[in-house]
């Protein structure tokens, strides 16, 4: 998935950014509780994508005058349409948060058309101005947290050989790999990232094989971008190498080798939506941001994070919060080709969103 | 006794005897209704204990089951939508079961059928070809693809003696892999990056919803297919021959029944049903072919068919029960804070108790047509 944000939309939605800033007086909620329906494609305790959302929803549940109804293991078929309708008809939900990519078309779009007085916000950057205005997208820039992983990994790894188990060679994944390498190079200029693509979002057996192969190739720190990183983290721990997480908090799976992990902070967005509705204000159609908007975070350091690694990562987080870019100099891919000669300070401008390459220092191929 | 008296007595006695025969038959048939209902009740009681152990109220669960599955027009629409694909995939299991074959590869036939329908429709998108032509062609492609696939399992059984349960399951994985190859490769919509799909078939070739029910036409197709196949299996020489073969293949062969043709025909019909389910998943639900076609309907269909004792007519109520459980399952999750697996636990209890209840058939004198026969 390429992050399909263009410059104009970025400017249009700059108001949306306010959502993430957490500037909402909680006292302003209406007396009637707002019912919010959340739909997960897998189990809420999967140590991955779904768990990250469930953690965000927990923050939502803590708000007064908000009632949350949740349904897990909802397939990307008719089932999700019926679940949305059921939440609207039987629970009186006014805001629906379907959290899986494949829910969007046709299911969320159709329900949004059929229920104009209900708001739908979906966790992928897919909304276009031609789509229903009561629908929308939200999308945190997780590559910033992967960059921090890299900063810590550059110092936590002894060999500087880092391993990355990736699902598919698509934009969003490539960007996380490239950011991880870029972060690692800030603390260890000789660091390399060896990547293995498994081919799909959830293939536990291949994820274990890939992790083992990376360790066998000499990598002493493994991270990943797959739906549920549990297998990768556990395999890395059992092989006695260090690891960085992805999506949610996996520190408990690797008590010895866990360094830190790239985590979404969906709660910022969710409580922001509830706040806007409570104040009777319209929801933005597009909400996005990274560390600057408190939409991503890194897992608290584990035993694998050395003191210098922690310090370097903390310092890098401060910079990202202030809006510093990840990519500042010309970007060279791992075939030696200059892909972006002049990098704009806004790292999410068009020229960087079409990331279909691996940067210099990554060992692997997109095809 | 004179003939005249005898005839008269026969004439007067006949209606009474016929009436009581019908009553007896009804009583005998009711065994197939009463025992499953008792089994479901027993499973529910076990499940109630399970809920009590979790500290949840069985009454509240039952209440939600009713509200979510059957309590309103919306709930019925929800239930029937979820039942629609299950009817067709259950038929995929039920028809070969008459022959004594256990086919469990409906999932692959569904996916392949859906893919065939989408692949056929995509070139027509924007061509202005009328839906009245393209939709039947899509359905035909889906039915043919599904029928060929399960027919292949039948052929392997026939020619090579390959176990059809294993081969249909393995063929199912191949069907899904082949479909994914095309979806992620030559037939991929370039716009579908994170979730590979074919190009959308568009509104022109979409199958709508049935009036009033708000359920797509796949449900009606399932009902019609179940009825047709039910009649075929219980009221025709074809069905009779199939059941003889299922009962004793050597006897069937000795009688000169075309066992080979029956096997191929039943397997192909079975695959056609799953293919049709795939057609509706593409034309009425997804609007394109993608990995979501493999949503597990083929596997749930196995359960439905077994619970219906492979009777095509009984598949309808069982599929509706499963649809209702799935529909209510969402509400149970939301209102009681129970995990999704709760409804699976109930399904599991029902399945085990129903299978165990098989031994009860013929043990209750009340269902016997003749006491003497029953005791014999």
UniProtKB/TrEMBL annotation, chain A:
Claim: NADP is one of the keywords in the record: no
UniProt entry keywords in alphabetical sequence: Signal
GO CC entries: plasma membrane
Domain ABC transporter substrate-binding protein PnrA-like: 35-271
Stored CDD domains: PBP1_BMP-like
Signal peptide limits: 1-30
Superkingdom of the organism of origin: Bacteria
Protein name: BMP family ABC transporter substrate-binding protein
TrEMBL record, chain B:
GO cellular component: plasma membrane
CDD domains with a match to the protein in the record: TM_PBP1_transp_TpRbsC_like (cd06580)
Superkingdom of the source species: Bacteria
The entry's keywords: Cell membrane, Membrane, Transmembrane, Transmembrane helix
Membrane-spanning intervals of the chain: 33-53, 60-77, 108-126, 132-153, 165-183, 217-241, 262-285, 291-308, 313-332, 344-362
InterPro entries: ABC_transp_permease
Pfam family, one: BPD_transp_2
GO terms, molecular function: transmembrane transporter activity
Topology in the lipid bilayer: Multi-pass membrane protein
Subcellular location: Cell membrane
Name of protein: ABC transporter permease
Organism: Lichenibacterium minor
């Amino acid at each position: 998935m390429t992050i399909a944000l263009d410059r104009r939309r970025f400017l249009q939605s700059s108001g949306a950014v306010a959502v993430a800033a957490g500037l909402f007086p909680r006292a302003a909620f209406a007396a009637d509780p707002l019912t919010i329906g959340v739909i997960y494609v897998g189990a809420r305790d999967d140590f991955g994508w779904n768990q990250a959302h469930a953690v965000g929803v927990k923050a939502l549940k803590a708000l007064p005058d908000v009632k949350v109804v949740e349904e897990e293991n909802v397939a990307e078929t008719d089932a999700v349409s019926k679940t949305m309708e059921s939440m609207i008809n039987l629970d009186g939900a006014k805001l629906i948060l379907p959290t899986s990519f494949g829910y969007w078309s046709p299911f969320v779009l159709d329900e949004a058309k059929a229920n104009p007085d209900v708001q739908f916000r979906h966790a992928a950057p897919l909304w276009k101005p031609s789509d229903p205005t009561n629908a929308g997208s939200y999308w945190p820039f997780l590559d910033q947290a992967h960059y921090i992983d890299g900063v810590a990994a550059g110092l936590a790894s002894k060999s500087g050989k880092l391993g990355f188990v990736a699902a598919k060679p698509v934009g969003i994944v490539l960007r996380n790999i490239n950011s991880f390498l870029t972060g690692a190079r800030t603390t260890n200029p000789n660091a390399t990232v060896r990547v293995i693509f498994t081919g799909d979002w959830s293939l536990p057996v291949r994820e274990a094989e890939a992790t083992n192969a990376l360790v066998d190739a000499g990598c002493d720190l493994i991270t990943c971008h797959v739906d549920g990183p549990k297998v990768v983290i556990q395999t890395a721990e059992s092989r006695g190498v260090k690891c960085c997480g992805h999506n949610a908090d996996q520190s408990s799976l690797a008590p010895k080798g866990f360094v830190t992990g790239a985590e979404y902070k969906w709660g910022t967005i969710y409580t922001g939506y509830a706040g806007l509705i409570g104040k009777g204000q319209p929801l933005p159609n597009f909400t996005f941001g990274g560390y600057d908007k408190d939409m991503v975070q890194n897992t608290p350091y584990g035993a694998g994070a050395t003191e210098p690694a922690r310090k370097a990562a903390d310092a890098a987080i401060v910079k990202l919060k202030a809006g510093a870019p990840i990519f500042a100099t010309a970007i060279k891919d791992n075939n030696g080709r200059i892909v972006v000669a002049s990098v704009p300070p806004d790292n999410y401008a068009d020229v960087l969103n079409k990331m279909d390459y691996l940067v210099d220092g990554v060992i692997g191929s997109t095809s | 006794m004179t003939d005249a008296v005898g005839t008269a007595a026969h004439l007067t006695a006949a209606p009474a005897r016929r009436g009581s025969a019908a009553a007896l038959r009804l009583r005998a048939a009711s065994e197939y209704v009463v025992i499953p209902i008792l089994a479901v009740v027993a499973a529910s009681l076990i499940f109630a204990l399970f809920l009590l152990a979790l500290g949840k109220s069985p009454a509240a669960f039952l209440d939600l089951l009713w509200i979510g599955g059957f309590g309103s027009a919306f709930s019925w629409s929800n239930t029937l939508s979820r039942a629609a694909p299950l009817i067709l995939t259950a038929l995929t299991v039920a028809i070969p079961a008459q022959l004594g074959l256990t086919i469990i590869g409906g999932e692959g036939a569904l996916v392949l059928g859906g893919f065939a329908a989408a692949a056929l429709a995509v070139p027509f998108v924007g061509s202005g070809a009328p839906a009245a032509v393209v939709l039947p062609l899509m359905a035909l492609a889906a039915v043919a693809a599904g029928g060929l696939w399960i027919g292949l399992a039948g052929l392997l059984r026939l020619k090579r003696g390959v176990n059809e349960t294993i081969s249909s399951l393995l063929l199912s994985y191949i069907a899904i892999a082949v479909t994914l190859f095309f979806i992620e490769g030559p037939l991929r919509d370039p716009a579908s990056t994170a979730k590979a799909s074919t190009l959308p078939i568009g509104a022109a070739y979409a199958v709508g919803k049935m009036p009033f029910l708000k359920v797509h036409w796949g449900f009606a197709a399932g009902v019609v297919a179940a009825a047709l196949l039910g009649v075929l299996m219980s009221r025709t020489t074809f069905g009779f021959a199939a059941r003889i073969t299922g009962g004793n293949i050597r006897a069937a062969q000795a009688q000169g029944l075309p066992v080979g043709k029956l096997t191929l025909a039943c397997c192909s019909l079975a695959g056609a049903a799953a293919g049709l389910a795939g057609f509706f998943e593409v034309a009425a639900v997804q609007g394109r072919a993608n990995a979501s076609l493999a949503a597990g309907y083929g596997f749930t269909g196995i359960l439905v068919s077994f619970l219906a004792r492979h009777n095509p007519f009984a598949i309808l109520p069982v599929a509706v029960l499963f649809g209702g459980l799935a529909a209510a399952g969402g509400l149970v999750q939301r209102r009681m804070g129970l995990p999704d697996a709760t409804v699976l636990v109930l399904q599991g209890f029902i399945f085990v108790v129903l299978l165990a209840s098989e031994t009860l058939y013929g043990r209750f004198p009340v269902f016997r047509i003749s006491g003497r026969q029953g005791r014999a």
